[in-house]
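[step 3/7] inverse_fold.run input=structure_tokens len=292
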């Protein structure tokens, strides 16, 4: 599945740190990583000197990284693009049929100086392929830790089939990184009408209990067990984004993996906004896929 990985870079150390998060995939498979730099277009009548300087810096920087990756056994290429960063990243992923976009959410210290938070969130909303996102808090974790793998993966589900579409990707990451998985469902306050039809028939006029929720999640647990991956299921009662962050800290998770849509399960999360809140505050990377 992970055959083509797109990594947008702006010359900053933070942006570059995402490469450490996918190195095992690059060195253990025949995946190709494409490093791209998106520079602003030169405006008519403006001084082209600074633009040319940034262009040369980007070209040299990408060439150096490609060489370093190839020396370690990875297959790497580079590309320079010009225009709106989010638009060009999305277009490059579409044109190259990328299977994963891996990027940081902040920059502004390199040659491109993107406002990465807004760029990453736009890519998160519109990308057709999965994303691996990391923020400055995760860079701090990397500096403090000798391990850069994903040994513990937290998977928030809301009970819907759409939210569970992240599971094939979770299993692939778990195999690469020898990971264990924790499935998390967090339930907030909602009307009885929000209870799924399957539950409403068996438990009329009753809000789900922890045992009921675990029963509904059992097929997903079995799917992961069948892949010979250790898995546990946790149920929380509270606000989705807060519970995800809290459990990630408690479990010492190395990765949070979720879809950007839900709303058809028993908790009916607005997954897109939850994912955006999580990536702003979590101390670990976020693996996210747009469920259609």
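[step 3/7] decode complete -> sequence:
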């Amino acid at each position: 599945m992970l055959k083509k990985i797109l990594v947008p870079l702006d010359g900053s150390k933070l942006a570059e740190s995402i490469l450490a998060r996918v190195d095992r995939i690059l060195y253990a498979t025949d995946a190709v990583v494409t490093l791209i730099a998106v520079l602003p277009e030169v405006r008519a009548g403006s001084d082209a000197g600074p633009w040319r300087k940034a262009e040369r810096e980007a070209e040299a920087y990408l060439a150096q990284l490609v060489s370093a990756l190839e020396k370690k056994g990875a297959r790497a290429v580079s590309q320079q693009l010009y225009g709106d960063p989010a638009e060009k990243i999305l277009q490059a992923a579409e044109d190259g049929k990328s299977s994963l976009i891996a990027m940081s959410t902040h920059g502004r210290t390199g040659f491109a100086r993107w406002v990465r938070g807004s760029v990453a969130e736009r890519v998160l909303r519109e990308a057709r392929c999965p994303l691996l996102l990391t923020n400055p808090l995760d860079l701090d974790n990397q500096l403090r830790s000798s391990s850069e793998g994903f040994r513990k993966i937290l998977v928030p589900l809301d009970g819907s089939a759409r939210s569970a579409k992240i599971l094939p990707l979770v299993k692939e990451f778990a195999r690469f990184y020898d990971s264990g998985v924790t499935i998390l469902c967090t339930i907030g306050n909602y009307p009885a009408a929000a209870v799924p039809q399957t539950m409403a028939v068996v438990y009329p006029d009753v809000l789900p209990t922890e045992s009921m929720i675990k029963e509904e999640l059992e097929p997903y647990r079995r799917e992961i067990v069948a892949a010979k991956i250790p898995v546990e299921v946790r149920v929380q009662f509270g606000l989705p984004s807060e519970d995800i962050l809290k459990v990630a800290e408690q479990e010492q998770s190395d990765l949070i993996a979720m879809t950007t849509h839900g709303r058809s399960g028993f908790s009916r999360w607005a997954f897109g906004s939850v994912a955006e809140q999580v990536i702003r505050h979590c101390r670990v990377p976020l693996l996210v896929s747009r469920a259609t």
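[step 4/7] annotate
Residues 152-289 form a domain with the Rossmann fold fold (CATH 3.40.50.620).
The radius of gyration is 20 Å.
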